[in-house]
Amino acid sequence: MSLRVKAIIMDGEGMRRVLTRMAHEIVERNKGTEQLALVGVLRRGAPLADRLARKIQEIEGNKIAVGYLDITLYRDDLTQLGYHPRVYRTEINFPVTDKKIVLVDDVIFTGRTVRAAMDAIMDLGRPQSIQLAVLVDRGHRELPIRADYVGKNIPTSRKEIIAVYLQEVDGKDSVVIEERVGA
Amino acid sequence: MRHLLGLRELAPETIELILSTAGPMKEILGREIKKVPALRGKTVATLFYEPSTRTRMSFELAAKYLSADTVGMAAATSSVTKGESLLDTIRTVKALGADIVVLRHPSPGAAHLAARVEGCSIVNAGDGTHEHPTQALLDLFTIREIKGRIAGLTVVIVGDILHSRVARSNIWGLTRLGARVRVVGPATLIPPGLEQVGVEVFHDLREAVRGSDVIYVLRIQRERQRQAFFPSLREYTRLYAVTAEILDLAKPDAIVMHPGPMNRGVEIWDEVCDSPRAVITTQVTNGVAVRMAVLYLLAGGEVKRDHH
């Protein structure tokens, strides 16, 4: 079985513009950066959170807190998987209590990852609010969850795969729709 | 990973996976709320046929921090005293609903025997003088955490190698990950054949310690000394106790480890075990993280790499 690229949705330039717009939206909605903190969901949410934080700093002039969250131990399908996926290290070196937390992830699909991420954050403290920023919303939600900031809405079929490639992880920036071919 | 029986049969990749899973687990131990839901609904039974406080508490806390339920049995107060066989006890515990059984037993091979019972995972928490895999894994984790690597380090294990399951498991693990291992002790307490697995044998402590990165001090296990393996405790202490003077012969950044419980003034001097170079309490904390990793990976069944 292999993957075939069906469509290229975003290139590096496109991604940069989308993130710039999202950074502005985050600052606008929160009326600045007071108590604001970004938390990237590992793995690809982490570099996206770093990039948004840099852009927000460019806009507002002050540094904001960034953390990384591994949600593996909070997944709701651990008992069904037949194996346990690799766990990465959560690094949130600031108290989340009373913060306005913006969760950052690459793709929102069923909403289950976000549910797990919210539970994980709540175990670390009591934030003032939790918002959600995603690069791609591909639909097919299974839980009553929506994103506050969306880079791009991409209607997909369940069979398609949305692949987000990031410079920091994959050596390139792009978003593509892939499809399984062969058996 | 179905069971954790010993380090001898563990591939280097599996050791690596356990160690790299223990890192994120240690972060959880530093939280105000030390609990994640990963093993909700799983049951971990601890079966201890030998006295133990720290290993048992460490496993129970590891299970609880992952939200598993725990039940414990100490042999002295159980139907073992009524003559039930080990396999029947394991079957009973499995029938009660245990997914993972943590077993400590005085007989070498007890964990391997227990693993014949279908349907639950066995963790060897020490089987006689044979192996104590989670102790060695926490030691490897601690060395790597402090030194940044294991390959190429010189580790000296001091004391009663013959009776030590800790030494045996550590020798397998350390050599597999590329460390140079030296053992030192009285000739009567060194098992034959260690050179064949790449271990250097010494009888002079000063010579063995010179230039080493890690000094691993074993406990003199008075309960296993039915015969006289050395003339007297005083004689042993004179030749093999790790003192500040001995520590000075190692590298300036060498660390001192001990699996506990310590006999102060016998195998290790106060000036050593209370010095900042002793990492004994770090070992204890890391033990919980490593056992969380082991329980997490066992509860997942097979070991698989990245999933995306």
Structure description:
The complex is a heterodimer of chains A (183) and B (308). Chain A is an alpha/beta fold. Chain A has a single domain, classed as Rossmann fold (3-Layer(aba) Sandwich). Chain A has helices at 12-29, 45-60, 112-124, 167-170, and strands at 2-10, 36-41, 65-69, 100-108, 129-137, 149-153, 161-165, 174-181. In chain A, helix 1 packs across helix 2 (45-60). The radius of gyration of chain A is 16 Å and the shape is globular. Chain A starts with a strand and ends with a strand. With 308 residues, chain B is of the alpha/beta class. In chain B, helix 2 links the parallel strand 1 and strand 2. In chain B, helix 1 (12-29) packs across helix 5, helix 1 (12-29) crosses helix 11 (280-299) and helix 5 crosses helix 6. Chain B has a five-stranded parallel β-sheet. In chain B, strands 2-1-3-4 form a four-stranded parallel β-sheet, sandwiched between helices. The longest helix of chain B has 20 residues, at 280-299. The two termini of chain B are 20 Å apart. Chain A binds chain B through residues 70, 72-74, 78-79, 81-91, 119-120, 123-125, and chain B through 17, 20-21, 23-25, 27-28, 31-33, 35-39, 41, 66, 293, 296-297, 299-307.
